[in-house]
Amino acid sequence: MSRASALHPARILRAAVPSILALALGLVVASLVMVAFGENPISIFSALFSGALTTQYGQSSVLNYMYAYLLLALAFLLPGKAGIWNVGGQGQAILGGVAAALLMEYVVLPPVIWPLAAIVLAIFAGAAWSAISGLLEAYRNASAIVTTIMMNFVAANLATFILYYILIPKANVLSFYNEVNFPAALTLPTLPYFTSSIMIFIAVVVAFGSAFFLNRTTLGYKIRATGLGSRPAESKGINPRSTKVIAMLIGGGVAGLAGAGAVMSVGHGCGIIACYQDGFAAGWFGGFGFAGIAVALVALNNPIGSVFSAIFFSVLAAGMPYIYQNIYVVWAMQGIIILFMAAPELSRMILTVRGKSRWI
Amino acid sequence: MSEPMLRMTGIRKTFPGVVALDGVDLTVSQGEVMGVLGENGAGKSTLMNILYGLYTMDEGSIEMQGKRVQIKNSAEAIGLGLGMVHQAFTLVPNMTVMENIILGNEPSKAGVVDRREARIQVQELVKQVGLDIDLDTLAEDLPTGFKQRVEILKALHRGARVLILDEPTAVLTPLETEELFKSVRRLTQGGSTVIFITHKLKEVMAITNKITIMRRGKIVASLDTKDANFDILANAMVGRSVERRFTFGPYQPGEVLLDVENLSATSRHKTEALRGLTFNVKAGEIVGLAGVEGNGQTELVECIMGLMPSSSGTIRMKGHIINHLSTSEVLKLSVGHVPEDRALNGLILDFSIAENTILGSADRPDFSQRGVMVPKRIQEFARKIVKSFNVSTAGIDVRARNLSGGNQQKVIVGRELAGHPNLLIAHQPTRGLDVASTEYIQSLLVEARNAGRGVLLVSADFDEILDLSDRILVLYEGKIIGELERGAGIGELGKLLGGIAAP
Asked: Phi then psi for B441, rounded to 5 degrees?
């Protein structure tokens, strides 16, 4: 509704100030850490950024990280708009991936329909997993922050069980690191030049779709109403409980989609059975679920903003192999950025000059 | 008494785009009760916040007992002997009264709170000012009036000689208000000076020695209370004469809209909130449901609106039983609802005005098609509400949070009346509003009644009930204990409110 004014460039810029400030402070503090350790921050950062941005491997890697970061950011922020905290994107993505893999192994369908069915099943699996926490919060007052975290562990262990006792025996993998490819009909198309799949497009479309959904549809409106004021919403006939559950289902579905992307993409994503075991064993998704939360927070829970913060986080992650032993820098930076974002009061204080708020 | 206790001269304060205070002078002598009277937004609170060091003034000077002072923050204000009691209390709920009073100013020995010394100090203070209170009760167990008393004692314990009371009666029952006035008199007899901020004429007449009236950031009148009367004050405050004259059409009640029979309900605190309540509301009448708060009003409205289950009895809307309907189903039966607390239940404060006007009706075909909202229509609708209900705002994209209370309420009432409901339930529709907004909202209720709608007015403002209602029902401990016709006196109502049933 307030589209015209909300899209005003000055306003967008103003809204992005805390995020940009946090990112900049992250770079500065990380540089100081490097200096303290006797390293040259300029050479480390140039290695990181040139690795991620100028090599083919690095660029593909950016795209690969980015879709997962972005989708998991959306999985966090969409329920967040209804006031329910989905910290369970990780588990929902894992189960989405497992569900897609099970369908691919056990059901044979015509081409095109086959991968699509796998993706749809992954979305439903992610949604179903999130529904448990959503229902518990809406109707039994059990905080989703707690239950989604617990469900992450359940999901990881359930996935490991399915992997070792069902999928790997079924796929007849001889050795753990054998590469047994899925049928070609099942992998997602790969981008030209890059070794990454079209998931990045899907993720960006989902991000813009989420923005449209939240701002322009009646369901999105109800979700925002529930998050910003569940009591006035309730007194006008919007059921905050069911709305929260629906928002959670949507978030879980988006996470499930990320999981499907991970198992169905070729290149150095996955798309090979062995990849499950490799990934799962190491806590599959390497903490993507939590990185997604950071991406969303840096973007102040804005779906379009998440696209940009996902780029930043992806570049950091993709550049890590290029700075060798100095990867601690990236962890430190991510931590610092999250710290600044999570402390909006702090940023506000930094931006407030003599009691007159200039930016926020 | 040669130098006044406090003199503020030429105070000016601007906020972006608004001149909040424009050359305000205020002089208060020791031992007097100065009433600062004004509508919401007149600048009373801004002035006091400057005095208390919460805002910095752009221009002007403050003197205390003839000495020029600079007050940069509230700690300095306290140091100068200023004490402020806000509307919202700042007590620590799980500390005792005594602990709360000494908090921040604890007598100590070697870094440890000296509780014995503290008790002696506080007991002496209590005795000296005559504000009786049990020092060992937990703050959370105190009734509102006593919480306020603790706040006052806390300020005095820190050495306050000038006590600022910001709308102190807003949260009090009439009896508690009377007690507060007694306390204020005792304090001034003991030499304290009190600044009493309010928009209630009766109170300012009852308790003050001098009255300063503010309007739009300026002092418009300053006079001794003995020279004042309601007309003078109201005229000065509003800038025109307050005449609560509404044009009532002839009283011709039509069909029964809302019919409540033998309704009982248990509140969230597991107490019996409603005990066999029976009444009805017909088309073309305003039924005033009067009662001291906490006698079941909230539960009754929630039961009707499907926000809370009833335990027995029936609620009918135009003959249909609605006990088990959801809120959205009840609203579809042409029921409008102006909820009790506009900021808490009525509006989503971080939504724009436009977004708030479609709360609950986003699914209507005028506003959305196949689940996608049509911004143009919504904007049109919001503009219509803003225009026809005189909401003063820079535009429909302004967040509800940035509207004054009166304008917020206009948005809510406008939204509810725009749906042309057969029945309008208005719960405390004018609480905390300034005189002009109150009158306007009330006139809308009367218009709705004249247009043949049924209005259930639930209010703890007894003037409002008496002015507007065709029939008055008195709610006491979950039951209707009496019914009065239009023209009943406040005495009759008062007895019923106190639980003395009509013969």
From this structure: -60, -40
Query: How confident is the model over A114-161, as pLDDT tens digits?
Result: 889 999 999 999 999 999 999 999 999 898 989 999 999 898 888 878
Q: What is the DSSP letter of B245?
A: -
Contact: B339, A232; criterion CB under 8 Å = yes
Q: Which residues of chain B does A3 touch, with a Cβ-Cβ cutoff of 8 Å?
A: 375
Residues in chain B with pLDDT values less than 70: 1-2, 16-18, 40-41, 171, 238-244, 269-270, 292-293, 489-503
Nearest to A218 among B347, B349, B368 (CB): B368
**pTM of the full predicted structure?**
0.73
Q: Exposure pattern of A161-199 as b/e (b: 16+ CB <10 Å)? A: ebbeeebbeebebeeeeeeeebeeebbbebbeebbbbeb
The residue in chain A having the minimum alpha-carbon distance to the alpha carbon of residue B376 is A1
This model of the complex carries an ipTM of 0.81
Taking only the tens place, the pLDDT of each residue in B219-236 is: 988 999 999 887 788 777
- Window 217-256 of A, Cβ < 8 Å to B: 217-219, 221-222, 224-225, 228-229, 231-239
Among the candidates B392, B419, B446, a domain finishes at B419
Domain count along chain A? 1
The answer to whether the CB of B462 falls within 8 A of the CB of B490 is: yes
| B442 and B326 within one domain | yes
Which of A137, A150, A13 has its CA nearest to residue A80?
A: A137
| Residue A288: CATH number of its domain | 1.10.3470
